[in-house]
Amino acid sequence: MQYGHFNETNLWFGNVALASHNEGSYAHYFSKIKELKNGEEIVYKTNMGERRYSVCENKIINETNVEVLEDTEENTITLITCVTGKSRYRQCVIGKEMIE
């Protein structure tokens, strides 16, 4: 899978932040990100294991908003992609780890 990991975030613990295209490129892994609703599941698979997250926010942020990259005590995932026709904004989905 091709996506961008924000180096200032961890790959497994705390806030894992990833970016990808949502259209146009062969690597448009976030093509349905706008459709994600609160409570829907995000599955994150790595060589360290698999984590499941529940969407708790889906919002538009300013491209300069770095607060969403801050570390968290609980395991969260932050997915970021562009907003079509609005180069200064990003679609941002945040999920919290689902504890079974």
Summarize the topology.
Blueprint: E1 4-5, E2 15-19, E3 41-46, E4 49-62, E5 76-83, E6 86-97
Provide structural commentary.
β3 and β4 form a beta hairpin. By secondary structure, this protein is mostly beta strands. Strands 1-2-5-6-4-3 form a 6-stranded mixed beta sheet, with no helix packed on it. It has one domain (4-97): Sortase (Sortase, Chain: A), CATH 2.40.260.10. The model has no long low-confidence stretch (mean pLDDT 92). Helices cover 0% and strands 47% of the residues. It is globular and about 40 Å long. It contains no helices and 6 strands.
> Mean pLDDT, as a whole number?
92
State the CATH architecture: Beta Barrel
Estimated radius of gyration: 13 Å
N- to C-terminal distance: 26 Å
Low-confidence stretches: none
Instruction: Describe the largest sheet.
Output: 6 strands, mixed
Helix content: under 10%
What's the CATH C level?
A: Mainly Beta
What would you call the structural class? mainly beta
- General shape: globular
What string gives the helices and strands in order? EEEEEE
Number of domains: 1
Named CATH topology: Sortase, Chain: A
| CATH homologous superfamily caption | Sortase
Give the helix tally: 0
| Biggest β-sheet: strands ordered side by side in the sheet | 1-2-5-6-4-3
Task: Count the E strands.
Answer: 6
Q: Beta fraction of the residues?
A: over 45%
Summary keywords:
single chain, 100 residues, mainly beta, Sortase, Chain: A, six-stranded mixed sheet, 6 strands, 0% helix, globular
In short:
The protein is mainly beta and 100 residues long.
